[in-house]
């Protein structure tokens, strides 16, 4: 069964109304689940408790099992990033789900995985704005990211499943101090080991893409603000 994916919205009051229509569209479709890859508001608004609560209430209208990833606009781009991530987790880390989620042990409850239609889906807290490279939290978070990714890849391989990796950041946006290079190397190794069985789904740069930037790894980027839409995906 297909699933729905969207991200990088709503950023404005007008987009809030469009997301309401989008939810109606997804609710009317037969979907296994829906995932939002993060950035549920612009950084000007998403750092506030009120905005997070309003989005939580809005997304509660989605009738399908729903998974939300943290975005940089909700925490790493805020003045007090670790406090904002703590608040995000208190609202959106899933305690129970029809998807039979497994969560990473420790502090990173946003790292979850589930199986659907021959694919193991795994979420990673990897962020835009160069993955918050300059902040001390970067190193322990990425250690947890790599541990969760490696464990999930091994599990998918053992079970003969595709591996779908979901994150907020576009890891192909590079700077002289590249916050994504080690992750791209991990993905490259996975693509070499299991070509055609690895999918990366992300947001961040707001432009739809379906390509293969790393040999053996299919990349899908969801649309984002000002375009508010969703993708119906099946592998």
In terms of topology, how is this protein built?
Layout: E1 3-6, H1 13-27, E2 34-36, H2 49-59, E3 66-68, H3 81-92, E4 102-103, E5 112-116, E6 119-123, H4 128-131, H5 138-159, E7 162-166, H6 181-193, E8 198-202, E9 209-214, E10 217-221, E11 231-233
Helix pairs in contact: 2-3
Can you tell me about this structure?
It is a single chain. The protein is of the alpha/beta class and 235 residues long. The protein has 6 helices and 11 strands. The chain has helices spanning 13-27, 49-59, 81-92, 128-131, 138-159, 181-193; strands at residues 3-6, 34-36, 66-68, 102-103, 112-116, 119-123, 162-166, 198-202, 209-214, 217-221, 231-233. The strands form 2 sheets. The chain has a 7-stranded mixed sheet with strand order 4-5-6-7-8-10-9. Helix 2 (49-59) runs parallel beside helix 3 (81-92). It is globular and about 45 Å long. The N and C termini lie close together (9 Å).
Briefly, what is this?
The protein has six helices and eleven strands. The chain is an alpha/beta fold and 235 residues long.
